[in-house]
Inverse folding.
């Protein structure tokens, strides 16, 4: 899944306990296959304006939300490749497009250099960078991710994120920062191209797991006690 560059899907999030994670995996035994990349430490650096316009608009937005970020599966070393992603959500559907770049090329571009690639995805990223103007790394979000996909439908994917940490104004990838939620809790994300399968819906109900809006970046932003409007993330 990490080598896919264009996504269009529904995403639902659930804030759960370790006991609920274990119960859900028992109830879905035989339906889920571990992702080929197994467990990994994800590091995402979110780009924003000096006044955090993107995350403020995301918190208060109605039908449309947008984020730009760098993402690495594992801690990049030297000039390793990282993903440059633009993620949009419109009326419940998530559209994510990304390119793979050497770390130095990504940083040089963010600092004002020319687009490091050609192509439609680069054009979309470049357009957003120019529209917002003066974007810089404002927040690093890190977590341990354990991923699965449905044995009978590769478009159904579950991820469990734990050990969530945030670090404001990162100078690069690395460091852990403060916790976003208690380490006793996890964020489950279910990603599908359509409806959630009946077997999964039944397992969620049995484990008393219910969806609720949650934003890692938004929650971290609120923890910094910045002014914001709106009640839900």
């Amino acid at each position: 899944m990490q080598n896919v560059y264009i996504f269009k899907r529904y995403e639902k999030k659930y804030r759960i306990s370790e006991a609920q994670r274990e119960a859900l995996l028992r109830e879905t035994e035989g339906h889920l296959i571990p992702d080929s990349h197994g467990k990994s430490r994800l590091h995402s650096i979110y780009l924003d304006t000096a006044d955090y316009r993107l995350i403020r608009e995301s918190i208060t937005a109605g039908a449309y939300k947008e984020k730009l970020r760098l993402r690495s599966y594992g801690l990049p070393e030297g000039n390793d490749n990282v993903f440059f992603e633009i993620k949009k959500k419109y009326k419940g559907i998530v559209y994510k497009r990304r390119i793979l770049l050497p770390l130095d090329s990504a940083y040089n571009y963010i600092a004002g250099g020319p687009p490091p690639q050609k192509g439609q995805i680069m054009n979309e990223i470049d357009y957003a960078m120019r529209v917002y103007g003066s974007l810089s790394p404002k927040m690093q979000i890190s977590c341990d991710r354990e991923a699965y996909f449905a044995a009978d439908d590769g478009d159904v994917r579950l991820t469990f994120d734990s050990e969530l940490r945030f670090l404001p104004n990162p100078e690069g990838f690395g460091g852990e920062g403060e916790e976003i939620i208690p380490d006793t809790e996890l964020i489950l994300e279910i990603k599908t191209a359509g409806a959630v399968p009946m077997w999964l819906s039944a397992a969620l109900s049995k484990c008393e797991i219910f969806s609720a809006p949650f934003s890692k970046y938004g929650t971290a932003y609120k923890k910094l006690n910045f002014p914001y409007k709106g009640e839900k993330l």
